[in-house]
Amino acid sequence: MEFAAYFPVWDKLTPQQQQRINGVIEHRTVKKGTYIHDSSSECLGLVMVKKGQLRTYILSEDGREITFSRLFEYDVSLLSASCVMPDMQFNVMIEAEKDTEFWSIPACLFKNLMEESLAVSNYARDLLSSNFTELMWLMEQIMWKSFDKRLAAFLLEESAIEGSSSLKITHERIAGHMGTAREVVTRMLRYFQSEGMVKLTRGTIEITDKKKLESLCT
Length: 218
Prior knowledge:
7 helices, single chain, 4-stranded antiparallel β-sheet, alpha+beta
């Protein structure tokens, strides 16, 4: 089964456990912009990306977004299965940033597997530990790193993901990624443009001096 290659502990499961997963695992294909999980959704379960790109983000009470992580091929997220982990006290939103294929193991089955299999239990703990590390890194960036450095790093990361120096992304979208207001992003981008690092056109940001952006990040 193709899914087995995406689930690192597959070979450590019993044939009976593998059969149970095969019987209920869901394969989905969603279009860019589709929300596959939010705070009002039922517990989705373990999500494994086959192809595409998902974005997980946190939504504040006043409606402000900040990107928590991005998921690419072979990436796995347990954040959509908060009901499996009673100590997980925050909800995340998950949307498709590109057309995406993914599998999901229902939360109830994954919870049972955690109770039955030490390998699955350890794997889940490793996933949560990785998520916690990402969250701490994010908090550190917000608290201690100036916005110009964060924005420069974001533009460089986006360029690497898209494989292009021309980014078709709005200021509003960047603000959603970075947990700030659109006006803040616009002001900083205009400063970057005045310094020759980017060129701004409607709906597009072109990186014109990558080295200068990189030096700003350090």
